[in-house]
Model the fold of this input.
Amino acid sequence: MDWLTTRPTGDDVLNPFAIISLVVFVLVLLAAGFYSTRPWAAPLKDQFSRHFVSRAATMLAWPAGAGLFFLVIRLLQIDPATFGRPIWIVLSWLALVGAAVAIAMAAPKDREAKRLRKSGHRPSQLSRRPVRKRI
Done:
């Protein structure tokens, strides 16, 4: 566990963990940017609502962006406020996995709601926001 908090040396910067992290964080950030601005794009347009796709993309973009920030600091071999340490990249991975799990848990509910909306069902009165009466 000592490797998480030690400053990386010059030859330790481009290890396989850093290269895999760089590729994954860049791909997730690009995909999140695309689906955040175009939630109606294929292949997700028929499965999920636009609101869900946009929120899921935002949930994935934050940890990927933070991980990319920490990775760039590590690749530049600077260590301001210990941001070049591997612990930050590992925490970004954990946040990315946590966001993916949260999205996977919310996806079936959104898929069912979209299926019901397509079939013509209206939301029940209990699920709507209450209307405030004017005095």
